[in-house]
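Fig. S4 source data, part A: sequence.
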Amino acid sequence: MLDYTAAEAEERFANNMIACVLEASFAEDFSPPVITPFVPEGSIQHVPWLALAEAPAVFWTTITDVASGVEEATFIWEAYGDTTQHIERMVNLKGDIWAADVSRDDIVAATNEVELNVTGQARGITARIRAVDGSSHENEITAGPFAMAVPEPWAAEQSVVVADTMSFAEDGYDLVFQDGTIVTLTDGDLPARSDVSVVVRPLAPADVDLSNIRGDMDYIGTAREVSLESGGVPVAAAGPIGVALHYPQYDVGSLAEAKFGLFEWNVLTDRWILAGAANSPRGNTVGAETERLGELGLFYWDALGFDDDAGLSGVLAEPNPFSPNGDGLYDKTVVTFYIARESEHVNIEFYDLTGKLARRFIWHQPTEYIGRTPIKIEWDGTDMHGEVVPYGIYIMRVEARFRQQPTYERVNAPVVVIK
């Protein structure tokens, strides 16, 4: 029984508030995950999606569970007319998007080509998706015969007209391609045209130049050519664009995924240059913001890596050496590092070999930047007065101040400035 004459109730009434407040001490999850079906089209009940050559067939959809989150998901597929089950662990690409990778060799070995009314030659499979949430509740959906059709031949590229697919939010829009590539755009990234398309083309192993990679690098089998086009002609972006490439688990082998990076191919110098290393082993993706679209590839590099046991880790400068001479080639270096604990700030300093300070940067951002997203600071080779520093070897000192012990962590590394 509520006592509306109590002093606390009267005070709440006086403040135009209700007399009592109900509080729940805990919430219990009774509902299973919600799985978005593969939507059929037409009488033959198939989804006309693209399988891209030189990439796995990536079957993806959205799975949500607002109460306790999606813990795991499984893709179970069979060739049409066959009862042999093929079970693939799904990965969380981003947000609510979950995907299963099936290699072309596996699909070809298990299926036969058939003629479909809409897509023509294709390989039909039946599939089920099973998802489990954090409270161990399960859900499962089934796609019937020819609900999944893998068209033949596999497409060389996928092109999407931006205006047909996007409505921009403040933090941008994720455009997910059929191979698992994710292109993140904001309205300011695009040229002022309505017919701009984003094009993704997987690259065959023979098209990936590995002649100049470092000795401690390994190509992990995923490379894409990403471009903006208008009327079939490449156009430049108006700002940095977020790109994440997706790799299948069967390409990982014994390599440490924490040391995977996204690299850009520089056609003028015939070198792969690190663009970033925002990796997500849960989604088998590695992403970065880049101003230079074109050929992008995923590599293992021993110098990369987020260390859970260190507050400051993965410190490096790339390219190194660099040449701030204004010719458009390696005019700046990008310092990247990871912060695993709440920090007050990070100092990034460059000293010449006499110990004189050449340049100092101070990084301070809200705590949502903490974690597996690398922090990036650009140095254009100028000193505190805006003058280009003399050529030579500099010592980069990155020092983080944390809110808890150990208070300071520091990493020193050489950076070379050349003509």
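Fig. S4 source data, part B ends here. Residues 40-47 have pLDDT under 50 and may be disordered.
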